[in-house]
Amino acid sequence: MVGANTYPVFALITRGEEYLFVKCDRIATPPEYGGLHDSVYYALSDKFTLSTAEGNQLYTVARIFKQLVSV
Length: 71
Prior knowledge:
The protein is of the alpha+beta class. The protein has one domain (9-58). The chain has one helix at 58-69, and strands at 9-14, 18-28, 38-44, 48-49. Helices cover 17% and strands 37% of the residues. A hairpin with a 3-residue loop joins strand 1 (9-14) and strand 2.
């Protein structure tokens, strides 16, 4: 909808010990370009896992959760 406030939507995809974050944005098409449809854009994070040879990424995942809560 033109003129509507749009905020990003965050999602989490998980398979037990693997985590993937998704950010979705909806952007209204300006009236001079038709204004009939909203465009949806998304971005995927890197895949985080709790079992790696270097150690787990649990603290990284927890830090991302903490940042999302403050948004």
